[in-house]
Here is the input.
Amino acid sequence: MIKKLPKVKISFNSPVILGFTIICLISLLLNWMTDGWSNAALFSVYRSRLSIFALFRFFGHVFGHANFSHFMGNIMLILVVGPLLEEKYGSSDIGLVIAITAFTTGLFHFIFFPGVMLLGASGVVFSLILLSSFASIKEGEIPLTFILVAVIYIGEQIYQGIFVEDQVSNLTHIIGGIVGAWCGYNLNRRR
Here is the structure.
């Protein structure tokens, strides 16, 4: 007797994280097809005259990636951590965390780094990592996991920012982490 396999259905379990991933992939393909024009025009933030494009770039820079390995490095972490957070906090809160992180890191970069372009979702990655350490917080307690994550991730970024010369915006990672911690504290306080 042959046993029938149960029907398996694929679910769109994390609409904000999956939507974010799809937009990043489309942005990457668009950048490839336009030979870099779309990243410069839409998916990176840099000092320019304030316009509708500049305002869009404050948010849009998190969708742009320099190449496939840059994209994969960010998206893999977002796909691991993001759905769990979206399940805990809800889609609208995770969308808000991503938007606040994008705007904060974009605005900070626009003001303080006039000659440098910023693109990529690493600020969002760090925001979600620090937010995840608040997932099991109880009132009146600071989770040891938060302290360890903050010290390890933020400490590494400070070290790399001072001692390693590369094309990585360590300050964006730190700001993203601060935004994630701030959002985690406030989201849990609200509950």
Observations:
- The chain has one domain: 15-190.
- The chain is about 70% helix and 0% strand.
